[in-house]
Amino acid sequence: MNLPQYQAFLKVVETGSFTKAAEELGYTQSGITHQIQMLEKSLELSLLKRDRSGISLTAEGEVLLPYIRNLRIDEAALQQRARELVQGNSGLIRFAALPEVTKCWLPGMISQFFHKHPQVQFQLFSGTEKECISLVQRGSADLCIASLPAETGMKTLFLKRDFLLAVLPAEKGKEETIRRTALQKMPLIRTCPDYLEGLFSGEPVAPVFQVPDSASLIEMVKEGLGCGVLSEMELKQAGKGVMGCRLEPQAYRDLALIYPDANPLSKAAEEFAEEAQIWISRR
C-alpha cells in the first residue's frame, strides 16, 4: 500500500488536472504522472483516461474510487489517533490497586485526570498486594498502587505513608494513641486485608469476629461488638460513631505507584501517574 500514490490519484480526480494536482501536492507534473502510473501498475488496472474534454475516471477507476477515499480517511484517522496517544490525550490505562485504594483514592484521582484527558479509558483491577504486582509483572496491568518495598525489577513513585489506626467506639476513644499491648487485650474484629497480622510481636490473635470488609468492621465497632485496625485512608470515610487512635509503636505502610522497569509507561499512563501524585499531595 502506497499512500502517496492514493493521495496523488485523489487529488487528480478532485482537480481534474495533473498540473493543478502537482501544484497543490508540491510535485512536478512528471512526478504526479509517475505516481499515477505506479498506482495503476500495482493494481494492474487503468484508473484515469485523458481525452479532449479533460481527465475522467475509467470504469475501473469509478469502482475503486470509494475504496481509495476510505483508505485516505483511515490513514488520517490513524495519524490523528497516533498524535493523541503521543500527547497522552487518548489511550487505555490498565490499572490495578488494593480494594481500599480502589474505593477511597481512585475515584478522586480518575476524576481529576479525566477533566484534562476525557478521551482516555481505564480498565481497573482490584486485588491483594500479590495479585496487583502479578498483574503488572505479567503485562495485564500497566501499573498499580501497592505497598513498598517493591519487588526487584519494578520502578516506584511514592504516594503516601498510610498509618494503621485502632478503630474504637467513639464514646470509648479518649486518647489519641493506644499501645499495641492494650489493644491486644480488647475484643478484636478481623477483616480483609488483615492488619492485625504482625502487630503483636508474633503472638497469636484470636478475634471474636471475622468480617469481609472495612465497612462491616466499622458497623460492628459502632455497635460495641469489638475493636479493629484499619488504615487511615479507610477510616476517613467512616463517619460518626467510631474514632481512630494511632498505635504505639506506630504501624504504617508506604503506598506507591509501581510499574515494570523494563516497560516504559504510555504517555497517558505517565500523565496519570503525575496527576495521582498531585491529587495525593492535596489530601
What would you note in describing this structure?
The chain is of the alpha/beta class and 283 residues long. It folds into three domains: 3-87, Arc Repressor Mutant, subunit A; 91-160 and 254-281, Periplasmic binding protein-like II (D-Maltodextrin-Binding Protein, domain 2); 162-252, D-Maltodextrin-Binding Protein, domain 2. Helix content is 44%, strand content 25%. The protein has eleven helices and twelve strands. The chain has helices spanning 3-15, 18-25, 29-43, 59-87, 99-104, 106-116, 129-138, 180-184, 214-222, 232-235, 267-281, and strands at 48-51, 54-57, 91-97, 120-126, 143-147, 154-169, 177-179, 189-190, 209-210, 228-231, 242-248, 252-260. The strands form three sheets. Strands 3, 4, 5, 6, 7, 10, 11 and 12 form an eight-stranded mixed sheet that branches. β1 (48-51) and β2 (54-57) form a beta hairpin. α2 (18-25) crosses α3 (29-43). The two termini are 53 Å apart. The model has no long low-confidence stretch (mean pLDDT 87).
The radius of gyration is 31 Å
Instruction: Give the strand tally.
Output: 12
What is the 3D shape? rod-shaped
- Would you list the SSEs in sequence order as H and E? HHHEEHEHHEHEEEHEEHEHEEH
Class of secondary structure makeup: alpha/beta
Would you identify the regions where 5 or more consecutive residues have pLDDT less than 50?
none
Strand content: 15-25%
* Count of folded domains: 3
Give a quick account of the main beta sheet: strands, pairing sense, barrel closure. Answer: 8 strands, mixed
Total helical elements: 11
Percent helix = 40-55%
What do the pLDDT scores average to? 87
CATH fold name of the largest domain, please? Answer: D-Maltodextrin-Binding Protein, domain 2
Q: Give the CATH H-level superfamily of the largest domain.
A: Periplasmic binding protein-like II
